Automatic annotation (TrEMBL):
Source organism of the structure: Dyadobacter koreensis
Keywords of this entry: Endonuclease, Hydrolase, Nuclease
Matching Pfam families: SNase
MF terms in GO: endonuclease activity; hydrolase activity
Keyword field contains Nuclease: yes
Signal peptide: none
Keyword hit for Hydrolase: yes
Protein name: Endonuclease YncB, thermonuclease family
SUPFAM superfamilies: Staphylococcal nuclease
PANTHER family assigned to the protein according to its UniProt record, in alphabetical order: EBNA2 BINDING PROTEIN P100, SERINE_THREONINE-PROTEIN KINASE 31
Domain TNase-like: 51-183
InterPro entries in alphabetical order: SNase_OB-fold_sf (IPR035437), Staphylococal_nuclease_OB-fold (IPR016071)
């Protein structure tokens, strides 16, 4: 059998055509995945912020920050305007990435609320990153913010909160040496 020469223009054209044809499905799938706005397809958009806000949790940033299946277009959202609403848990601060109990706090938050519809009690206040400040009420009625402090997976954020209830939860966790307080 005689192999055609690459100098033959018809043969070269056929080889290029076959290569392009084999790459086409991959290129098309990339184009479809990267369409603008696809990330938020099917998410409710609103220029008003319901209070309380009820929505499904679609992301866990860390122990005290979650993302909801709800887009707020209001100006108060700042940098996050037109993006899925992120909730920064009011009254508390959980360990940051790389710190002891960071993964435990994030995992606990995930287990409690990821994929579930939660209720956010808020005053319509956003932080400088465009995150809505609020308390996360779980489907069973408990408040996740309080649970995290109670288990020693977050501290009462006294810089931004004067809540005596959160202060008492933290004192109780300290006395029991739970979570982050077990390291002292």
């Amino acid at each position: 059998m005689r192999v055609p020469s690459l100098r033959n223009s018809n043969y070269r054209l056929l080889v290029h055509y076959l290569i392009a044809l084999s790459l086409l499905p991959g290129l098309l799938s990339l184009k479809q995945k990267n369409q603008p706005g696809d990330k938020y397809k099917g998410i409710v958009k609103s220029s008003t912020l319901p209070n309380p806000l009820k929505a499904e949790v679609i992301g866990i940033q860390d122990g005290d920050t979650i993302e909801l299946k709800f887009i707020f277009d209001g100006k108060k959202a700042g940098l996050r305007q037109g993006k899925a609403v992120r909730i920064r848990f009011l009254h508390i601060n959980s360990p940051e990435r790389g710190k002891p109990f960071y993964k435990v706090a994030k995992q606990y938050t995930s287990e409690k609320c990821f994929g579930k519809i939660v209720t956010i009690k808020h005053n319509g206040e956003f932080d400088r990153y465009g995150r809505l400040l609020g308390e996360v009420v779980l489907p069973n009625g408990s408040v996740l913010n309080k649970e995290l402090v109670q288990r020693g997976l977050a501290i009462h954020f006294k810089k931004y909160s004067t809540s005596q209830e959160y202060a008492n939860l933290e004192i109780s966790a300290q006395k029991k040496k739970l979570g982050i307080w077990s390291l002292q």
